[in-house]
Amino acid sequence: MTDELIHEGTPRKSGRYPWGSGENPQQRNKDFLTYVEDLRKQGVPDKTIYEGLGMKSNELRQRYTIADTERRLANQHQAMILKEAGNSATAIGREMGGVNESTVRGWLNPAAQEKAQILGNTTATLKANVDEKRYLDIGEGTENHLGVSSTLLATSVRELTDQGYKVYSHKEPQIANPGQFTKYKVLGHPETTYKEMATNPSLIKTVAHYSEDQGKTFTKIVDPVNFDSKRLMVRYGDEGGAEKDGVIELRRGVDDISLGPSARYAQVRIGVDGTHYIKGMAMYSDNVPNGVDMIFNTTKSRSSNKLDALKPIKDEKGDFDPEAPFKSVIRQKHYVDKDGNEKVSVLNIVGDKDHSGEEGYWSTWSNKLSSQFLSKQPHNLAKQQLGLAFDKKKDQLDEILALTNPVIKRKLLDSFAQSADSSAVHLKAVGLPRTANHVILPINSLKDTEVYAPGYNNGERVVLVRHPHGGIFEIPELTVNNKNREANQVMKNAWDAVGINSKVAERLSGADFDGDTVLVIPQRDAGTNRIKTSPQLEDLKNFNPRIAYKGYDGMPVMSPKTKQNEMGKISNLITDMTIGGATQAELARAVKHSMVVIDAEKHKLNYKQSALDNNIKNLKAAYQGGSSKGASTIISRAKGKVTIPEKRPSHVSEGGPVNPLTGEKNWTPTGNGYMQYYKKGPNGERVPLKEPKWVEAKTQSKRMLETNDARTLIGNSNSPIENVYADHANRLKALANQARKASLETAPLKVDRSAKAVYSKEIDSLKAKLNVARKNSPLERQANLIANTQIKAKKDANPQMEEDRYKKIKYQEQRKARERVGAGKEPIKITDREWEAIQSGAITNNLLRSIVNNTNLDQVKLLATPRDRPAMPPAKLARANNMFKAGFTQAEIAQQLGVPTSTLNDALNR
């Protein structure tokens, strides 16, 4: 990675000092204004002026604005003093050197004074932020985030650089796009250095203020409100807390802990006494004892201090992050108290503005079936659901190929190709009819064979699947009971929650009630290929990992990093064992160990002893080819990490980044590397090499991305289920290549100058919407920095981390970082008239690409689809027929295909 440094400092100086410095900087600014204005009066072009001063054009404009604003503020201040002394505008003009009356009235105009103050307010806000944080992101979109113009922001930055502040440029790798970088423009305190920032880029922060009146005033986000521990009761494990572990019970009718007028549950974080916090699922209860307003349920044993059951805000090192006190991003709730005042609630909802963590959110989660789950089912079921997934992808490509706008068509083709490649790696299948994600809540009056699921028919059979998924013995098949009195009191007609008792939760890989989710799959809709389940393994009955492998005093506790890594390893092993035909006893050993690992960090369990007792090395040798080996089937290998020479997309002179004949990606080695002169000795010391050697730079990729034929990843058993997945991956790869080839063949948009005049209002409207959308850019950059720091720490702690775990960690850290800073695009909505402007050629290619990058691609696709195209073309009709045969209802098919039910019905009955 190449780092860049730009220090925007001093312009052309007068003597030793820059413009605006010295004992009387205002006087020097006056000299600068007089100098520039005199040259302009003589007819000297601005280009000659700024080149003579050693400046750039924008720098001259910025410095002139700063100097002119200071002069205007000084004149306004003097004019106001003279007015308060009783002088008329005419008298003030004479007193101030013969200024005409209209100019004086302009100085005294409140609107003009306010405008002059805005630059000072913006500069002061930036200065306060950078003085506090030392390094401040001021890149693209910061002006939108602040709520000021780009010119005003640039001018404020220029004013601060004249005071000794520094501007740096830096690059950081993007998480979602390996090989690509995000550029940062950073304002630094005078005492900062580029080396310090580049070594620890997490020091770069975003502006903590925003303005809703274009810079007149700035507002700062408020700190979370804390709950008083005197109002809190802790229900410990032996008191019934274990049966509701993670649930926060709330007294009804209390304003500061209200979930809102209609909500019944939410995933929250609650600060307590300013030193601790609670994380879990909040729901109402009618059994809260007098004297408290909240009950926290936990598996922990009773302690003399109830705060011991909560999580400390400070970490083990004693550090505290004021920007993320609850270790995750929260969205503050507000309420109106009895006096009509709006206040901040103690309930902080987990997630961002998209309402994650609240009732109704979980229903939006994907219902796709993972390869980890489906590969353990009959291969005919996998073939059926993967076939539907491919049909959906093929239909998407056909729709894109029919688009008329070349810029949008290329954008969607490139996006589709990336998506198809990703689908070949992740190997997810279409969910079965009526399959949906639900958060689990405790209803302990239900039987071990029952589930409260208002979205399903009373009396029907459903299965629950939780990830990580060990095997079919962890899939309970339950009967829906929607008449349970307890459930109807607290979650009647819940959108996206189901109720189960604690024993069912334990069978689901030891699930808790703090926000864990399950896929609910109706058995009857699976048709002849019903979901295969089996009784709980005998060796797992009554197995309690918290008792069997309780840690000892002084034992090193598993870290979160190690937990993620070990869970990845054991999950892959269980998958490979299942495909390889492992016995029930062997599977029980692996699953026992997985149960220990999943709880080892939280409950301080001895996972190393579990690995020895269950002889995990022996299982790895038998089913993965060696005690230290990893994934051995296409299911676990597809996302596996592979180290390759560092590469880049080929230049046009090398054949281009895409093969025009096949659509495959073309790569060229970067040639990067370094000369190695030393090696590491047995004690970590540097030992000189006999002869220096060149070490080629390496990078990491996924096995599925680095092969043109997925069959190369099939294991030695060559099982039917692996062949099903290999065929599916190869078909997806072919679609990706077809999309890239079509993108390469799509000609650019032709701009019509006459259309620009006709649609000038629409162009201005689209530009304004783009400015709003770009407000998200600084937050995205901040999230990228935070996530990269966390990912690097986890990678450094575990250099041998497997790719599937590494990928999950990258995704998790990026998601957490985006939630933490509140990053999330506000997509541009294009009107019909604006679309006319786009189609007429009034918008340039660059502007349209920026708009498309900040809008909803589904809306753009709909606008760009020819109006005379049939609603149900042959490919879509074939997909509808396949879904109908698989058991989907007409309503579900119509929703999936994006057509009215009546249109679907007509097409199916022709």
Low-confidence stretches: 1-30
Strand content: 15-25%
The domain count comes to: 5
Mean pLDDT: 81
- Please give the radius of gyration in angstroms: 32 Å
| SS summary, helix count | 31
The beta-strand count equals 27
Describe this structure in words.
This protein has 910 residues and is of the alpha+beta class. Helix content is 41%, strand content 15%. It folds into 5 domains: 25-219, no CATH class; 226-359, no CATH class; 436-530, Barwin-like endoglucanases (Beta Barrel); 545-637, no CATH class; 749-869, no CATH class. Strands 7, 8, 9, 10, 11, 12, 13, 14 and 15 form a 9-stranded mixed β-sheet that branches.
Can you tag this structure with a few keywords?
27 strands, 910 residues, alpha+beta, 5 domains, single chain, Barwin-like endoglucanases, globular, 31 helices
